[in-house]
Amino acid sequence: MANESRPCPCDIGDKFDYGGRGQEVQVGHIKAYVCKPSASTDKAVIVIHDIFGWQLPNTRYIADMLTTNGYVAICPDFFVGQEAWKPSNDWATFNDWVKTRDAGKIDKEVDVVLKYLKDQCGAKKIGVIGFCWGGAAVQHLMLKNPHLKTGVSLYGVISRFEDKHSLLHPTFFIFAEKDDVVPLEQVTLLQQKLKQNCKVDYEVKIYPGQTHGFVHRKREDINPQDKPYIEEGRRDMINWLNKYL
User: Fold this and answer.
1) Tally of CB atoms within 10 A around 53
2) Handedness of CA 46, 52, 55, 60 (dihedral sign)
3) Beta strand pairing status for 72-76 and 43-48?
4) Given a cut of 50, is residue 4 above it in pLDDT?
5) Where in this chain does the record put each Dienelactone hydrolase domain (predicted)?
6) Between helices 227-244 and 57-68, what is the axis angle to 10°?
7) What backbone phi and psi angles, to 5 degrees, belong to 190?
8) 39-49: per-residue pLDDT in tens?
9) Rg from Cα positions in the chain
10) Residue among 136, 138, 141, 176 nearest 160 (CA)
């Protein structure tokens, strides 16, 4: 039974009714959703899911969107078989749940995925995007993984890595002005720290009036007031990838 007095701040938003154009494959010890463009390419993007897991249709929709823009897209199960969070779960249990799913401990899985992309998909230039939990994972990877070219962190939980800002690769940070999960004071602090410590290209952008999850968990056709920002966020994400891949 969900705790109605304190619902999960990562509200599911609009759950897309979307089947996906790709397929599920086994990649080493994990499962993954993969979608490939019709024309061959050496560019790929790893898509890191939010707390709702790798099978969320919304996340697969974004992976397929990347494919229509010429990228091999792969969304692995970074929970490695553990259950994703459900909107019906009791929010009071969330902290214990998330402790067993550390966004900073996905390196083994990323290595397996990188090998698959290079060996099976012919990828030479690989970037990464991630949402919420996955956005924090992107920041982690941008700080330490030399094999990735660039990253886009969408409303990543930055408190997870608040003391680390020496990014290795160009990184784009997307935030929502009215985000209950990532308050603006955290974003301001991130900007200050990046300005002091970061030697690669980066951008931090705040989208007015938006809430957590707006790029992948709101539908532009039923949220007319948000449509310009949903579309802008997606366009900015793809433009950043195009620039650095």
Assistant:
1) 19
2) negative
3) parallel
4) no
5) 30-245
6) 50
7) -60, -45
8) 999 999 999 99
9) 17
10) 136
3-state secondary structure string, the chain? CCCCCCCCCCCCCCCCCCCCCCEEEEECCEEEEEECCCCCCCEEEEEECCCCCCCCHHHHHHHHHHHHCCCEEEEECCCCCCCCCCCCCCHHHHHHHHHCCCCCCCHHHHHHHHHHHHHHHCCCEEEEEEECHHHHHHHHHHHHCCCCCEEEEECCCHHHHCCCCCCCCCEEEEEECCCCCCCHHHHHHHHHHHHHHCCCCEEEEEECCCCCCHHHHCCCCCCCCCHHHHHHHHHHHHHHHHHHC
Structure tokens at 14: 């609009």
Q: Which residues pair with 90 in a beta bridge?
A: none
Per-residue model confidence (pLDDT) at position 162:
62
Contacts of 114 (CB under 8 A, 6+ apart): 46, 126, 147, 148
Q: Are 204 and 191 in contact (CB under 8 A)?
A: yes
CA distances from 12 to 59, 120, 192, 200 (A): 12, 33, 31, 34
Angstrom distance (rounded) from CA 73 to CA 78:
15
Q: How would you class 65 by CB atoms within 10 Å of its CB: exposed for 0-12, middle for 13-18, buried for 19 or more?
A: middle
72 phi, psi to nearest 5 deg: -70, 130
Annotated catalytic residues are: 132, 179, 212
Q: What is the pLDDT of residues 5-39, one digit of tens each?
A: 445 667 788 888 888 999 999 999 999 999 999 99
